[in-house]
Structure formats: structure tokens, C-alpha cells
Amino acid sequence: MAQSVARLTQADIILVGELHTHPAIHLLQSQLLSALSDSALQQKRQLILSMEQFRRADQGALDAYLAGKIGEAALIREGNAWPNYPSDYRPLVEFAKAQRIPVIAANALSRW
Fold it and tell me: Is the pTM of this model over 0.90?
């Protein structure tokens, strides 16, 4: 993983595809975020996490949670979190919150 992270730190944007319900992928995402965070600090670069877990319309709830203005239950409810949020996406959000990494709600609304 260290070799991969060293190469990724040179990128401006990193996209990680996933199967939404595959726990190993979410573990890899958490490990990667942590490693990239350490590297970003050393290189004095800003790291931003963008997540499909939250819709663009739910950015306000996500921002309020990250700022400590609402609790996790409100984030889950008001942010329309997916059922697997606690097991699969929560570690990413909590890490970002603790490290003060901005999180972008990136899921577009569907018209279907």
C-alpha cells in the first residue's frame, strides 16, 4: 500500500470505484484516506473527501455535522444516509471530521 500511496500523492484527483455493499472496499477507502491524510500534511496540501453517499442537496446537513452543530442521528436522518452508512461510510466521515478534512456530498439527484 505504501508504494501505491506514494504514487497517488502526486495526483490532484483520485477516484476510487466501489461496490456499495462490499466491506473490504470500504476498509481500503478508510486506510487510503488515512495514508493520504498523513502525506497531505507532510506536503502541506489540502485533502478533500468527496462521497457519493450523500446527495448534493444534503450538503448542509453534512456541513452541520462536521462543524458539530448537529449530532450523528440528525446527519443520518437529514442527510438521507444509506442503510449501510454506519458500517461502511461512517469511518470515512468520522476520520474526516476528526482531521478537519472537508467532505463534499457528490451524489446527483436522479429524475427517475
Answer: no
